[in-house]
Amino acid sequence: YTIVAVDAKGNASDASGALNTATFLPTPIGMRLTGQDTTSVTFTWSASAGASEYKVYRVRGTNVTLAETTTSTSYMFSDLPQPSSVSMYVVASDGNGGVSAPTITYAAATLPETPTNLQVSKTSATSAALTWSATPGAAKYNVYRYASSTNSWLLLAKAPPRRRIAAKFPVLAASRSSRRAWDAAAAASPSLLRAA
User: With a threshold of 0.85, does the pTM exceed it?
Assistant: First the structure.
C-alpha cells in the first residue's frame, strides 16, 4: 500500500513509503505473570507465528524503552529495587523488519520483603503485644496465629503499617504457655507475619 494526499484542486503529493502488509506478524497472546519475588517479576506469552524474536518494552509513564530483544517467550525483570512495579508490552519480530502490533500493556509488582525482628511483649492470659521491623512499601501486615488443633496458621488480624498490634490468644491459653508459643512462632516469622 501507498498513500497520496490530494487537495481540493486535484493537486497530488508524492506517494508515501510503501507498506507491505506481509510484514505484520500476529500479536503475541497469552501474556501472563509466571514469576514474582521481592526483586523480580517474570512474564510469559505464547509464540507468534513467523516470529524469530520478541522485543520487550518497559513503560515508565510516557517513557518507553526497549528492555531486551529475546528469542524466548519469557522475560524476567530482575534486580529491581524494593518495592517496584513494572509495566511492559511485547512486539513480535521476524528479524527482517516484519513486526506485530504490540500487546496490551501488562503490569506487576514485586512481592514485599518478609517482616523481620518479630518480638512479643506484655503478655497476659488472653493477649500479647507484637512488634516487628517495617517492610518497605508495605500497606498492611497480616498477623497469623498457629492452631495446633488444625495444624495450620489462622489469620488473626490485619495490622496497619505502624509495626505494632495487640494480638489475642484463646481464653484457655495460659500466659506462660502463650508466651512460649509466640516465642517459638517468632523464630519462624515468615509463616506468622506477612506484609501485604
Answer: no
